[in-house]
Design brief:
This protein has helices at about 20-30, 65-70, 85-90, 110-115, 130-145, 145-155, 185-195, 220-230, 250-255, 270-280, 320-340, and strands at about 1-5, 10-15, 40-45, 55, 60, 75-80, 100, 120, 175-180, 200-205, 220, 230-235, 260, 285-290, 310. It is an alpha/beta fold. α1 crosses α11 (about 320-340) and α5 crosses α7. The longest helix is centred in the C-terminal third of the chain and has 20 residues, at about 320-340.
Length: about 350
């Protein structure tokens, strides 16, 4: 851990190897300006070199409670992506007033404990929407044209002319019907790109007004989306209702030879059912960035089923995302120190 500055409000920049501590620190200083003196401490957590996981009672965290407790001594603010903000950490940090998590949701913070200890928790909505939308299109196009298998063959020195056979050819986006399950910050961007490419876009999202889709997409039920779409891409949040929402029954409703893409969360999809559908030809291809277990276990069917193009949960990883995330949380620090309302606070009742 390194310390920068000598006086002023102490801010812990608990970054990692993606959202770097120095990016967080630089943006905090920029957001605060000369109006308030800040003492920025930097802590580097091991993610993504070491996979995140549960720490204490929180999920998807990196580092240890003891390490964070020590780093937070005397700190009023913590800006982080993965630090475990647990009951134990919060109880041991009485001077802490603000935590800013540079993610779409503060899943590594015990929100109930933070509220009880008087700590406001902010997050960074939309930070990776552009990157994830672009990556979704990357996998969608790759799956539609069989890029995964052809790439593997060429790397192994195999040139297969039968990829030009009619039954093995991929499909075009122009003129295709594409169904998007979810229409948030990411799904809406994917929709606009697909429309520009000439696709007909269907959307199933019970939380979106049909008026918001006017001129872009057609709102439909999930069943209609599945039966009409040659390509289906998942963009829903994981809830009790959406967990396992796409299984064997739903995939069977899709036209034979369809494409399925998931850059959202592994819990939305039954991957065994997807592999069965790929083996049978019900699905012609699939693009996956997220999985039921991460890292994907050795021997998983996903790794050997033909027609799958895969990436290791990197849809939201771009250099621009790291900078956007740092700017969003740093802006909250500036608001906090100037006594202004917070823009993205998960427990506003703490502020009164």
């Amino acid at each position: 851990m390194s310390t920068t500055g000598t006086t002023g409000t102490t801010v812990l920049a608990a970054g990692d190897h993606f959202v770097l501590p120095r990016l967080l620190g630089a943006e905090v200083r920029k957001a605060v300006g000369g109006a308030v003196a800040v003492d920025v401490r930097e802590l580097t957590l091991p993610w993504p070199h070491t996979p995140f996981g549960p720490v204490g009672e929180v999920i998807e965290a990196s580092g240890t409670e003891d390490e964070l407790i020590e780093a937070l001594r005397g700190a009023e603010v913590c800006v982080t992506q993965m630090a475990p903000l647990t009951e134990r950490v919060l109880a041991a940090s009485p001077g802490l007033k603000l935590v800013c998590v540079s993610r779409g949701g503060p899943v590594n913070a015990n929100l109930e404990a933070a509220t009880r200890h008087g700590v406001a928790v902010c997050y960074a909505p939309g930070r990776n929407a552009v990157a994830t939308a672009e990556h979704t299109l990357t996998l969608l196009l790759a799956a539609a044209r069989g890029v995964g298998d052809t790439h593997t063959d060429l790397r192994e020195g195999v040139w297969r002319g039968d990829y030009y056979d009619y039954d093995n050819c991929g499909i075009e986006i122009e003129g295709a019907t594409v169904g998007l399950v979810g229409y948030g910050a990411i799904g809406s961007r994917v929709a606009r790109i697909l429309v520009a490419m000439g696709a007909e876009v269907l959307v199933h999202d019970p939380y979106v007004s049909p008026r918001a889709l006017t001129g872009i997409a057609e709102p439909v039920t999930l069943d209609e989306l599945l039966t009409r779409s040659r390509i289906v891409s998942l963009h829903a949040r994981v809830t009790a209702e959406t967990t396992g929402m796409i299984g064997a029954e739903q995939i069977a409703r899709m036209p034979r030879g369809s494409i399925l893409v998931n850059c959202a969360r592994g819990a939305l999809l039954d991957y065994d059912a997807a592999c069965d559908a790929l083996d049978s030809g019900q699905l012609a291809g699939a693009g996956f960035d997220v999985y039921p277990r991460e890292p994907v276990p050795a021997g998983s069917r996903i790794l050997t089923t033909p027609g799958v193009v895969m990436t290791p949960h990197i849809a939201g990883a771009s250099q621009e995302v790291a900078h956007k995330a740092a700017r969003i949380v740093a802006a909250e620090v500036g608001r906090h120190l100037r006594g202004e309302p917070l823009a993205h606070c998960a427990n506003p009742e703490v502020r009164g």
